[in-house]
Amino acid sequence: MVPVAALSLLGLAISRTDGLPMSQLLGVVCGVAAGALLAGLIHQLLHPRIAYRDGNVLFFLKAGGPLAVPVQVVEAFFLGQGPANLPVGTDKQTNTVNLIARLSQRDSQWQQRDVKRALGKWSEGYVTIRGIWCEPLTFETIRRLNHRLHEVSQEQKATSEEDMPTGESYQK
Q1: Reduced to 3 states, what is the DSSP secondary structure of residue 63?
Q2: 31-58 pLDDT, tens digit each
Q3: What is the pTM of this model?
């Protein structure tokens, strides 16, 4: 974000000079474009990677809307480790702690999804969110996520049992 903010300030400074109108226009355009890019980066930074809404766990791992997975498909969250995938010029990759969600193997439709590689990976029923793009990941964070997953799973189970028809021919 620092280079984008610096570019925005540079554009603002150029636009305020007494130079040619064309250079002032270039400064304004540069400042506005960099400001919009900075706003987008801040939005991405403040956006959660995982959320819950209306019976779905939402994974924000690509541009546009989230990937919504029914809560009953998500089995657990745990910590992992993997490459940070930072754009560095060395051959040695930095490792980071990752958040991993295990999805049910029974629901094969959720085994694979295309996600933004910099944010994570979704393959073979595991959703990996790169820790570089998350809040600090600790065992307490994982405990809270699994506790909340259990709560919403139980709420949804209770709601679906209330909606089920009763009668002798019905079996739970």
Answers
A1: coil
A2: 888 888 888 877 777 778 889 998 999 9
A3: 0.70
